[in-house]
Amino acid sequence: MKTSDFNYDLPSDLVADYPLAEKDKCNLEVISRSDIKIKHDRFCNILNYLNAGDVLVLNNTKVIPARIYGTAKNRKTIEILLLEKIDSNNWSCLMKNPKDGLELILKNELKAIIKKNKTGNIIISFNREIEKYLDEYGCAPLPPYIERKPEESDKVNYQTVYAKQNGSVAAPTAGLHFTKELLQNITDMGVLIEHLTLHVGYGTFKPVKSEDLENHRMHSEYFELRKNTCEVINNAKLRGNKIIAVGTTSLRTLESCTSPEGILIPRKGKTDLFIYPGYKFKIVDSLVTNFHMPRSTLFMLACAFAGKELIFKAYEQAKNRGYRFLSYGDAMIII
């Protein structure tokens, strides 16, 4: 299977730069796999596609303000994106034109030195534990296709209302549409809500460079899945209820922790599971997700779950209706 098989035209004016003021009022495209039908709704009506006893699985990772700025000796401002914590003072990072040994001044006597390790990765070494200062000095790590500077409002907008566990440098964006009120309404109708954690890395935006999908290697991401959550989901499957994954991160975690017999097993560690058409899903019955970039692993996962032909048809309908795409855009539910 080829990467080019998952290309489609995405007009730039459909890429959402900001979320809607009322996030749960966004468009919801409903894709039914059983009768190969597509219809259009609002996200606040997602309750109509859930039933009492179903389990809605949310990724409670919390996005850290991972975009920071430093000043070099020549007074040039340098933008840095923190990727992964190595220890209290050292992080892997991304920056343009990194120079080994470059010294940066941040704020409040915070200083840092840029280093390149033997594998070519960029390490930023701080003179203090940077996490204590990120909420005050860091910015939301908006994805590269949002071509504007992060604003203070993004610290709230680019975060789910149920975010709890610090560690992501990109949001699990399917969850951005849920409000506390909507989640309460879902609970009130008898749907069970469970949480897992997968810390989303910047690799989620990494393009697939291999033309043959079999040669692509996914970035690995840390996850945790608790015993109690596994028991709730396994019992729901035995009853014949549905498991609804909110976002590709939740789905990949669940599928990474399911035995060949379809039993969910509590685990923590890293997953690099790459899902594309041909994958046999073991436990997830429905998927809530956003509209993804062409040729991306996220788009490939959606094609695997719903069928490539149906997803392409759904995307064309969404484009024709002026849906908003990508992180701050509209949503779909595949049932």
Strand content: 25-35%
Record the strand order, biggest sheet: 2-1-17-16-14-3-12-13-15
Q: How many strands, what sense, and barrel or not for the largest sheet?
A: 9 strands, mixed
CATH superfamily membership of the largest domain: QueA-like
Unreliable runs: none
Under the CATH scheme, the architecture of the largest domain is 3-Layer(aba) Sandwich
Helix percentage range: 10-25%
- According to CATH, what is the topology of the largest domain? QueA-like
Secondary-structure element order, N to C: EEEEEEEEEEHHEHEEHEHEEHHE
What does this structure look like?
The structure is a single chain. The protein has seven helices and 17 strands. Strands 2-1-17-16-14-3-12-13-15 form a nine-stranded mixed beta sheet. A six-stranded antiparallel beta sheet has the order 5-6-7-10-9-8, with no helix packed on it. The protein has a two-stranded parallel sheet with strand order 4-11. It has helices at residues 131-137, 154-157, 180-188, 227-239, 248-256, 297-306, 308-320, and strands at residues 27-32, 37-42, 55-59, 61-63, 67-71, 77-85, 90-94, 103-105, 111-116, 122-126, 165-168, 192-198, 221-225, 243-246, 267-271, 286-290, 331-334. Helix 6 crosses helix 7 (308-320). The chain folds into two domains: 3-63 and 154-334, QueA-like (3-Layer(aba) Sandwich), CATH 3.40.1780.10; 67-137, Thrombin, subunit H, CATH 2.40.10. With 335 residues, it is of the alpha/beta class.
